[in-house]
Every structure is written in C-alpha cells, then in structure tokens.
C-alpha cells in the first residue's frame, strides 16, 4: 500500500515509488508509449547536449533538507550541484550531462557523462527511452536520456565539475505542490520550478524532471518546451 508524507506547508507526496522490477516495468511501458518531440535546428546554430535521467535506489543519500521519511529502496534520480568554479551555470542544480562530442549520439554522451561526473558505469542495456528536446536560453539543445540504474553503491563526484551529488526520491516529483509556475519576462511564457525538499529547482533541469514525472511516472504526454527559465539561468 502506498504511504504519503506531509511537509510543513501542508502538501503531500506519494511514497509508493520503490526501486523495483514493477516500477521499472511501469516506467518502461509509459516511455514506450510516448512519442517524443525532436527539435530540428539548422547546423551550427546550437550547441547540442545530453543529460542522463537515471533511476536508482535512495539509500538515505539524498543529503538534502526537507525530504521527509524515505526508505532505502525508494526510487530516486541522480542530481548534482554544479561546481561554483565552472564558467557557466556555476552552482546550479543539474542532471549529469554535457556537450555531445563529434560522432557521439545523445545516449553515448549521457553514458559518458554519468561515468565522468558521478562515477556510474552503465551501458545501453540500461536505456529506457528519451524525453522531449529542450532548447535553453544559453544556446543549448538538450536531449534527456532516461536510464534504469537500479541498486547502486556509492557515487563518486568529479571535483572539477560537481560540488555535490544528491539522490532525489521520485516521491518528491509527485508532490501536490509541483510544479511551481510564475510569470516570466516574456508575456504568456511561464517559468517552471520543481520543489524538492526545502528548496526549488529551476528550468531547464526542472522541465526535464517535470516531464519525467508526467510521462514516465504518470503515463501522460505533457510537453515542456514552452516553459521558460528564470533570468539567472540564461547565461
């Protein structure tokens, strides 16, 4: 039976998201039924990148205030805080990822970045599917790649790129107060945030998390390309 956890602001989240075979099958079935939107860009007009949306076990390694009660075997996603020493997007929340090298596919890039940033070695056998492309204000064309990691031991951060690694329970994505929307600088284009613990994560990372929730967890076909980013994430 699913349980729920309560937060100080009165919202609740379902905790019935175990890192189990049945949850993997649920995610896989929903992703298989999803037709993603691929953004076509003229050659040379964008910097292409891929990010890894990786489902693993929680193991009480979220290291983040306000997550509420969680089981070790709860399903979670890997998120990082970018190093404050990086030239762009320093200190921001991010999924493991980076630029697509010549001759690489988005899947190959996401696998490489998982190894380089958090020390997780997966293969194409772990691939579950792809979400919609998202074009950022800073000129990146991002392809989110979903992997099943399952039970995973200690992750090792790359100190040159990553300030900290966090396991964010999938139950956080299911919170009743998610997503958070506010008006942006462009009329009619809202900025999207996802609340996690006692903090919030902004788009573009929040847009990927929200679509993972809607598509993979809930079986919907929600789109996110129309959501904007806060001004601090434009550069």
Automatic annotation (TrEMBL):
Name one molecular function that GO assigns to this entry: metal ion binding
**Cofactors, names only:** Mn(2+); Mg(2+)
Return the SUPFAM superfamilies for the record.
Nudix
Recorded superkingdom: Bacteria
What positions does the domain Nudix hydrolase occupy?
46-193
Pfam entry (one): NUDIX
Record has Nuclease as a keyword: no
Report whether Hydrolase shows up as a keyword of the record. yes
Alphabetically ordered keywords of this record: Hydrolase, Magnesium, Manganese, Metal-binding
Family, per entry? Belongs to the Nudix hydrolase family.
This one is known as: NUDIX domain-containing protein
